[in-house]
């Protein structure tokens, strides 16, 4: 098992973050949403989150995407 980076771990453990992902991504997916749509919505939400960072970098973007996708995958089970 690989360890998650600190930001990803902290975000996926945050109830407020999980709720935001559910409200912004999962709740608006059609029941027949394919993987491409799910990934696109998750990436868009990660980009919106990244815009709130003072000095964003590529690693932060990747961690945000991982955190969003982790929550989406867990909520869609």
Helix and strand content put the structural class at mainly alpha
CA distance, first residue to last residue: 20 Å
Task: Describe the sheet with the most strands.
Answer: none
Total beta strand runs: 0
Can you tell me the overall shape? Answer: globular
SSE order in H/E notation? HHHH
Nearest-integer average pLDDT: 87
Number of helices in the DSSP assignment = 4
Spans of at least 5 consecutive residues with low confidence: none
**Beta content:** under 5%
C-alpha Rg (nearest Å): 12 Å
The level of helicity is 55-70%
Plain-language structure description:
- The chain has 77 residues and is mainly α.
- The protein is 68% helix and 0% strand.
- It has helices spanning 6-13, 15-24, 35-50, 58-75.
- Helix 1 (6-13) packs parallel to helix 4 and helix 3 packs across helix 4.
- The two termini are 20 Å apart.
SSE map:
Blueprint lengths: L5 H8 L1 H10 L10 H16 L7 H18 L2
Helix pairs in contact: 1-4, 3-4
């Amino acid at each position: 098992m690989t360890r998650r980076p600190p930001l990803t771990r902290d975000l996926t453990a945050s109830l407020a973050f999980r709720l935001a992902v559910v409200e912004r991504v999962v709740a608006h997916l059609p029941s027949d949403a394919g993987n491409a749509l799910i990934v696109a919505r998750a990436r868009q939400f990660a980009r919106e989150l990244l815009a709130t960072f003072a000095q964003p970098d590529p690693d932060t973007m990747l961690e945000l995407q991982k955190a969003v996708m982790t929550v989406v995958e867990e909520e869609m089970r």
